[in-house]
């Protein structure tokens, strides 16, 4: 689904980042996300999260070409209301980005992937899948990929991984459920930078 709020082919996006990103943006003219940033931020859970991040990088790069030197995506909100407020050592960027540079996805479906679950097409499909798994005697679908069942049931693993591509299917535009990713933040895309305690200008809130 296309972003209904485009202006002259550009999307307004919001992202909260460590303030160190300002130095890279000034020095390089761009900011990109790196594996070491994710490891520092997520600490103990980073190895588990990076496995699905790696899947996302591969899948998303087939939709919007990834620059060769980029390691990971930059997470963005499509709504000012959905953007995290900057805390100590953080800033929020308000970006104006050409729409062809943006990868849109469902945050609800992404939650399924983060937990290594099957992403259902709809409620009916979820009901079918749940009954099918229960009939086979399995208690937890999470364990097909990372638990006691890992590597033992290739058909079930394949079905789960195949379902993940549905994260890019957005049947209805809800700014609180749709998120966006970029491969980089270019300096010329930055319209405003907010520091802790600075309010988001009213003009960026949907009416």
Account of the protein in words:
With 207 residues, the chain is of the alpha+beta class. It has one domain (10-195). The chain is built from 7 helices and 8 strands; from the N terminus they run E-H-E-H-H-E-E-E-H-H-H-H-E-E-E. Strands 1-4-8 form a 3-stranded antiparallel beta sheet, with no helix packed on it. The protein starts with 9 loop residues before the first strand and ends in a 13-residue tail after the last strand. The mean pLDDT is 92.
Q: Helix and strand layout, with pairings?
A:
Blueprint: E1 10-18, H1 21-28, E2 30-31, H2 35-42, H3 46-61, E3 74-77, E4 90-98, E5 103-106, H4 107-114, H5 123-135, H6 143-146, H7 154-163, E6 178-182, E7 185-186, E8 190-194
Antiparallel strand pairs: 1-4, 2-7, 3-6, 4-8, 5-6
Strand order of the largest sheet: 1-4-8
Task: Kindly report how far apart the N and C termini lie.
Answer: 21 Å
Number of helices: 7
Number of domains: 1
Main beta-sheet annotation: 3 strands, antiparallel
* Morphology call: globular
Number of extended strands = 8
Class based on secondary structure composition and strand pairing? alpha+beta
Rounded mean pLDDT is 92
The Rg value, from CA coordinates, equals 19 Å
Uncertain residue ranges: none
Strand fraction band?
A: 15-25%
Report the order of strands and helices: EHEHHEEEHHHHEEE
Relative helix content: 25-40%
